[in-house]
Amino acid sequence: MKPELKVDMTVEAKLGTLEWKKSPEAHISLRDDSPAAPCAAKCQDKPCVTVCPAKVYEWEPDHKKVVVNYENCIECGACRMLCPYDNIVCDWPLGGMGVKYKYG
Ligand code: SF4
Ligand code: SF4
Predict the structure, then answer these.
(1) Which residue of 15, 23, 73, 97 is surrounded by the most CB atoms within 10 Å?
(2) What is the pLDDT of residues 92-102, one digit of tens each?
(3) Residues facing 60 on adjacent strands
(4) Whose CA is nearest to atom 2 of ligand 1?
(5) 88: in domain
(6) Is there a domain that residue 16 lies in?
(7) Atom of ligand 2 nearest to the CA of 77
C-alpha cells in the first residue's frame, strides 16, 4: 500500500516515500576533488552541502574534501545550478536506475 503524501510532511518523511535503484556508476561527481579544488580552497559557503535535499554532499574537514553520496540523489538539479565554481558534473543515472517517484 502506498504511503499517504501530506503537504505538512517533513522533507525526510517525503524522501521516505521514494525508492531508488542503485546505479553501479556514479551520475554525479566533482570535476576536481583534490586539496587544491575550489571546495577546499575557495568555496566558503559550500551551497551543495546545504541545498541538496537528499544530503548527497558531505564536507569532510579533516580531509578537506566533499564526499558525494550519489545513491541518494533525487535528480532535482539544484546542486549543479548553485555551485559557484562549476565543480559538479551531474548527468542522469543509467537507464532504469536512480530514484523512482511514486506520485508522479
Ligand atoms: S558548491 Fe561546488 S565548489 Fe562549493 S563545495 Fe560544493 S562542489 Fe565544491
Ligand atoms: S540533483 Fe538535487 S538531489 Fe541530486 S545531488 Fe543535486 S541537489 Fe542533491
Answers:
(1) 73
(2) 898 889 998 87
(3) 65
(4) 83
(5) yes
(6) no
(7) 1
